[in-house]
Amino acid sequence: MKLSLAYSTCPNDTYIFEAIAEKKINLNGLDFDISMSDIDVLNNNALTADAPDITKISANAYAAGLWKDYVILNSGAALGHANGPILVAKQQFALENLPLKTILIPGVNTTANLLLSIFFPNAKNKKTMLFSEIEPNIISEKYDCGLLIHEGRFTYQSRGLKKIVDFGELWEQKTQMPIPLGFIVAKRSLSKDIIKQVDNLIMQSIEFAQNNTAQAMPYIRTYAQEMEEQVMLNHIALYVNNYTHHLGKKGCNAIEYFFKKAFDAGLLPQMPQNCFL
Question: Among 46, 114, 214, 266, which residue has the fewest nearby CB atoms (within 10 Å)?
Fold first, then answer.
């Protein structure tokens, strides 16, 4: 059986899926048509008529309505501690002045934007930009500030940018819970047996990468935006953790709490239901 599979070019995703993409594990009769895109593109593609069977998706995009079409898998999630988006600027400024600033965001349906809306509802002057273009546009001071995701949290200081607020730290200070950033989801129209088989393959792929990291690096390096190897390894270490291997009860509770916070803030049309495999 052939399934369409979409994920990002970021090191954590390519690390997770390398063994599947390179057929280093037994796929048990499944075949995958793989595509890779920026997270905002992945979110938007999941809304189209030819949406992929299995895809990486932002927690925000899922909660905003895609929960009706997709179920969250146990494996592959980006969820953890102190790994949220960071708001940076060339010049330091007080948070009370944020509503006066132009803020670059990596996509309307990204979790980064949802966190910004939860904590700073009056900060509405936003401009969407590809995540890899946000940092240079802040460095050049074309815009006041921007939300960095992925590798940006490892490189901003060396490029002369100042941290205004770390949303991962802020979320944990307020909630004492891990922050859900994104998940791997499967179409509800697929049979439960196929979904469970895919979920198990992702878990196996993660385990293979953990035991054979050096083998996975050429594939990861091919697609990484930031080519310095230590940055890629730091990225993987931060975003691939026990929750990635299996969400467990604590991970599922953290996701449901996140959705409730967004719903209570009036940022979701409905509270997502029956989200987990």
Answer: 214
